[in-house]
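Tutorial handout. Part one gives the primary structure; part two gives the three-dimensional structure as tokens.
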Amino acid sequence: MTMTMTMTMTMTLMMMGCVLCRLQLGNMQSACTLGVSSPYAAVCASSSRCPIASLDNASLINSGVYSAIFIRLSGRTGEGIRKTSLTELREVSFYTAGVVEFRQAIGQDANENLADNLAGYLELIESPDAKPTDIIIFPELTLNGMDTLSFVPKPEQALSPCVDDPGSSYFAPFLVSISCAARKTSKYIVINICERQLCSATPEDTRPCAPTGINIFNTNVVFDRKGAVVSRYRKIHLYGEPRNSTFVPEPQSFKTDFNVTFGHFICFDILFYEPAHEMLLKQGVRDFIYPTMWFSQLPFLTAAQVQLGWAYSNDVNLLAAGASHPEYGSTGTGIYNGRAGTITSVMKWGEGERRIYVAKVPKYQSARTTKAQRPQRSLKARLEQKTRRGRDSGIQIKRDYLEQYESVWLEQLYQQSEGNLKQEVCHGKLCCNFELEWRQLPERPAANNFYGFRLGAYDGWRNEQQVDANYVRNCAIFACSGPNIEDCGQVLDTKQSRVNFIRLIIEAKYPRSREFLLMPNSVLEDMLPLEPPQFKWSMVERRITNQISVRFGLTDSVQLSNLLTFAIYGNYYDDICTFGKGTPEQDRECGFLATGDGAAGLRSLGYIWYVLPALGMAVKQSIPIFIEPWSIVGGKKFMPWTKLN
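Part two.
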């Protein structure tokens, strides 16, 4: 291809890209609104100029623009979208994953429970639904128990219990059976078990050992297609469990033969920097496995609500498998594709289930690219699905410690047929600004049979007893069955709702910190969260003040009458090196320069590379500038203070 032909092709692509933005979504602004899952999101911007006009041919190829444009231009036939023969067209690849929602046996006999659970596992592994999967994930602690422990081989030994110990002389029979199932079906299989290890196996651990001479761990075990154990992870953040923690945390990632590197962690770990968030930031892992027996908690920590928020904010694939006992508040399984949102998910009500949910999962490339079109649950179906029953629904939900929040009861919502308000609520050093617009529903419930809402702010430690604590800074709108704070954080029936929200916005300035994660946080009456097309999310770094300006709002077309929670969830983990929390001397020790000198920021960074992931570009800046993510890169989260080598 000559240089002239290359330039002509490039110019053609630039014009077509901008035209197609308008053709598919009506205008460039809508194409670039946060959360829109479109193959053209990378070539659109909210400005009137097409951003790809400044890209060279190589940048177009690397950003996936060729693929987005030519897949669309190839036209439709009876066989679907035709393929193009252009060598520049990069095939978008997938792997197929299965996540299991599993109701474990809870009878009095531990061996009978194990036999029942193992039979259920094997049935699912060999089921027709599981046939296309490359990898299957089972939930936390739904196979064996404290009375039916097993040793687990070290991954570096590359042992297959099925081959190396077929008579179960060392490893428990159930572990051998799962190994053989992985080998028979040629699949990666991830289980979570109660593991035992001899204390003498870790002489470097000088902590007291139990009289039995063994340590007991909550452990993920990963089998490859040949039944060999290729990874093992022992849970770090135990949730009130009578088990041990490792003396030295083990590696938590593994590579597969389908060219995906997975990290894995367990349940309560998701609320902490190590190991989950650390794997993303330090190792660049973009696909995560997450066995869980989550006990949902309103208004901020129901299972799917947390799973989607974590995957979205980190822009990663998350494969979550949940235990299924809704009567104890334990349910929540799903597959999430970063900023594109949910591929499939379930929050069971009433009786639990034993079921595998299978989906194709887009692979992340070495650079962030636009997502291809993929099978996904219909948003319309989500919005129109049958409402669930409220307090008698058969699901038990724990309640957060809302009494610690500074909160305001919104009496206006049921005194006025329609209205709007702007209000600020502050707690500690965090101030939350709320903007609401609403109309009352035409069919109102009985005068004393409806629920309302509170605005809340919290800047402090979560004080759940006997578990690891994390520091949160939250701004929230949450539903309550009455005017008192004790009436909030409950499962409610949407037939009691009197309000239809037509506008919701929360804005707040969050301090920069060494380790933190800001997440959109929402849940509806069906215990499922809002999807990315339903909300807007932006983060703007204010380097001079060492703050992050966050804005979370409904998209213009969305109205809600079934809302339970709408919040910005700021997880600051251990709250170490958070700007402004300590003295100026402590801020300097953490690497922050003093504010107001025109060059505030982390001392060690020098030049800053501002990453524009959707376009595959980096713009080097030597002075502080402000960037609003959703207006430039479709709302992709990026770390403006991250330096690229």
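Part three, for discussion. The first helix runs from residue 3 to 25. The CA atoms of residues 441 and 498 lie 5 Å apart.
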